[in-house]
Amino acid sequence: MAAFEGLVDYEVAGVTAAATFYIAEIYFEFSAALLDSERPTGLTEAEKVDYELVIEEEAYPFEERAIEVHEENFELLAVGVYNPWVQKSLDKLAIVMPGRYAKNEISGGFVGSIDSYAYRMPIAPKIGVEGEDGVEISEVGDAAQSIKAAAQIAGSPEPN
After folding, report:
1. Where in the chain are the domains?
2. Fewest Cβ atoms nearer than 10 Å: which of 16, 73, 135, 138?
3. Does residue 158 carry a pLDDT above 70?
């Protein structure tokens, strides 16, 4: 581990990415080795279950650290570093955390929400015409027609 961490300190993109990948893999392999380790004989069923839980608890931090280290390689993309080692880390993250790193993009094509648009002029109600001496000339029938036209524009039922 110390040798790989020393390589990361060189701060050369390709070397850093490769060393980071191998550090993460060491953590993963150690976690897997704990989970696959030989179990003691002579344990009762309850003791076996307890032993499995303890082993899983001991292996979990190593797996988490491995994910964190692979994510450090992922962060190299933000500074413009992309090489096979970064891709290998991304591939490993896609396997370990598919919900976050194995998302496929789906193209739906162009949105054709507005194929055509036709403007319709609203129907204006009739307005009375002013006659001589500023007196408004309109009859009750004209007023009723105006109310019906306004109701049609508003989309409400016609008044009685």
Report:
1. 2-101, 121-160
2. 135
3. no
| Cα 52 to Cα 38: distance, rounded to the nearest angstrom | 11
Contact between 16 and 74 under an 8 Å Cβ cutoff? The reply is no
Which residues make Cβ contacts (< 8 Å) with residue 86, sequence separation at least 6? 17, 73, 74, 76, 77
pTM of the model: 0.62
Provide the pairing of β-strand 129-130 with 136-137: antiparallel
If one counts every other C-beta atom within 10 angstroms of the C-beta of residue 34, the result is: 16
Query: Which residue matches tokens 């179990």?
Result: 39
State both tokens at 99: 């919900």
> Hey, what are 107's tokens?
């193209």
